[in-house]
């Protein structure tokens, strides 16, 4: 994003402020969709990465489908204009009320993650007298070699079922008058820059799919999950062509619609968090801190996963050459409240502006009100024009569910 008057943005929307590049979001969606141009595919954007309604509307207008993990996400997608037949609903613990609503909305499919959950889906479908499309999440026991908190494809993880369990579940679903098993699904982890584990999983699940088809189960969707990594620091992003070819190769000619559940790949690098410098301070042992108005409640990734986000100067009042190493920390009462560590910055003063980069995915969507801090405003830049897509919360917003009990 170039030629942006960050001081004007602060004057209009305050800081911290999330800024999203809508042209980049469209381009990233198109880049992945184009890879499957000669094949049937549905790119289901994973709302968990960023569920801002205007981002969903933008992606729906490009033809995207949506991968949801709660009925709240399903409702967000519908509100933003998504077609029910392009919505899928995954998640390791769907409540019965959520299953019921999802069935009534007529979404494309529910993705079951355990035999007990599949029984619940069947029971509810029976009560509603409907036939429900389902897929089953297979845990292929593959090490995605990413941060342990975002690795999901090993037996020790809570997600999905083994192939042996899945086989029994598919055969039961085949016999059921209320279940229609149309998909196979896996997702082995997030922020994967090496796609070999995804392709390996695709091959395992594809072979299993052949077995299901041979047993007369009419699988139509091959859901490869999400997980494509992006560049935060020195990472090399996966090559989309190799990714798509690897998946198509794994299909070995089976005529299935490829479904991807990408979140981070589409939005991470299209978002930045603008934050104002409050103070500088030096500890007794000489350690330098730049204290800013953004904090771990706005962007928790550095605290939670030791994630790296680049930092750049958006606007400084007194340019100087006096660079030194510093941590960028927020006002929250925790030592874990930092946005960056050991980076080199010039001397700064109150009112200078910093940009925390690559914050479009798992930034605002993981924001909280910790320390009774409001969640900040969000804006979009599209075709060089700025528009607001989210308001900063007010104090009233934060207390509205409690004050009646005083
Ligand atoms: N599908 C399923 C079943 C998932 O669990 C996830 C992410 C996705 C798709 C989308 O993955 P993506 O394409 O965005 O990698 N908060 C963490 C990431 C958690 C990912 C959870 N599941 C972070 O900030 O890195």
Automatic annotation (TrEMBL):
Sample GO molecular function, one term: pyridoxal phosphate binding
Swiss-Prot/TrEMBL keywords: Amino-acid biosynthesis, Decarboxylase, Lyase, Lysine biosynthesis, Pyridoxal phosphate
Binding site for substrate: 264, 301, 305, 334, 362
Cofactor section: pyridoxal 5'-phosphate
Modified-residue entries (N6-(pyridoxal phosphate)lysine), positions: 48
The protein's annotated pathway: Amino-acid biosynthesis; L-lysine biosynthesis via DAP pathway; L-lysine from DL-2,6-diaminopimelate: step 1/1
EC number: 4.1.1.20
Gene Ontology BP term (one): lysine biosynthetic process via diaminopimelate
Keyword Amino-acid biosynthesis on entry: yes
Orn/DAP/Arg decarboxylase 2 C-terminal domain: residues covered: 18-360
Domain Orn/DAP/Arg decarboxylase 2 N-terminal: 24-268
SUPFAM superfamilies: Alanine racemase C-terminal domain-like, PLP-binding barrel
Binding site for pyridoxal 5'-phosphate: 227, 261-264, 362
Family matches, as PROSITE patterns: ODR_DC_2_1 (PS00878)
One Pfam family hit: Orn_Arg_deC_N
Active site location: 333 (proton donor)
Catalytic function, reaction form: meso-2,6-diaminopimelate + H(+) = L-lysine + CO2
Function according to Swiss-Prot or TrEMBL: Specifically catalyzes the decarboxylation of meso-diaminopimelate (meso-DAP) to L-lysine.
Family, similarity comment: Belongs to the Orn/Lys/Arg decarboxylase class-II family. LysA subfamily.
Oligomer and partners: Homodimer.
Name used for this protein in its record: Diaminopimelate decarboxylase
Species whose genome carries this gene: Candidatus Campylobacter infans
């Amino acid at each position: 994003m170039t030629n942006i008057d960050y001081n004007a943005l602060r004057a209009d929307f305050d800081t911290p402020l999330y800024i999203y590049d809508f042209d980049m979001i469209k381009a990233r969606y198109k880049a992945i969709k184009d890879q499957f141009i000669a094949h049937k595919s549905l790119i289901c954007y994973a709302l968990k990465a960023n569920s801002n309604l205007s981002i969903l509307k933008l992606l729906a207008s490009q033809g995207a489908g949506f991968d949801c993990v709660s009925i709240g996400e399903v409702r967000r997608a519908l509100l933003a204009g998504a077609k029910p037949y392009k919505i899928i609903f995954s998640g390791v613990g769907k409540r019965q009320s959520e299953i019921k609503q999802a069935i009534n909305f007529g979404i494309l499919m529910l993705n079951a993650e355990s035999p007990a959950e599949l029984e619940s889906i069947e029971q509810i479908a029976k009560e509603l007298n409907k036939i429900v499309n389902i897929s089953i999440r297979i845990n292929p026991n593959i090490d995605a070699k990413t941060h342990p908190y975002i690795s999901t494809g090993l037996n020790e993880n809570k997600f999905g079922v083994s192939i042996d369990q899945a086989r029994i579940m598919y055969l039961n679903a085949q016999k059921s008058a209320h279940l229609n098993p149309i998909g196979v699904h896996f997702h082995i982890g997030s922020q994967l820059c090496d796609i070999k584990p995804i392709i390996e999983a695709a091959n395992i699940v594809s072979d299993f799919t052949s077995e299901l088809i041979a047993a007369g189960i009419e699988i139509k969707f091959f859901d490869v999950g999400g997980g494509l990594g992006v560049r935060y620091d020195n990472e090399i992003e996966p090559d989309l062509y190799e990714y798509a070819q690897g998946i198509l190769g794994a299909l070995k000619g089976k005529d299935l619609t490829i479904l991807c559940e990408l979140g981070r790949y589409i939005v991470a690098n299209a978002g930045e968090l603008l934050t104002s410098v409050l103070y500088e301070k030096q500890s007794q042992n000489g350690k330098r801190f730049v204290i800013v108005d953004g904090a771990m409640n706005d962007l928790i990734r550095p605290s939670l996963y030791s994630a790296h986000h680049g930092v750049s100067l958006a606007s400084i009042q007194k340019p100087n050459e006096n660079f030194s190493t510093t941590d960028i920390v927020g006002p929250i009462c925790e030592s874990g409240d930092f946005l960056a560590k050991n980076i080199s910055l010039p001397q700064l003063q109150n009112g200078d502006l910093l940009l925390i980069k690559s914050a479009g995915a798992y930034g605002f969507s993981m924001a909280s009100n910790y320390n009774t801090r409001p969640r900040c405003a969000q804006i979009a830049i599209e075709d060089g024009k700025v528009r607001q897509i989210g308001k900063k919360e007010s104090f009233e917003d934060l207390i509205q569910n409690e004050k009646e009990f005083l």
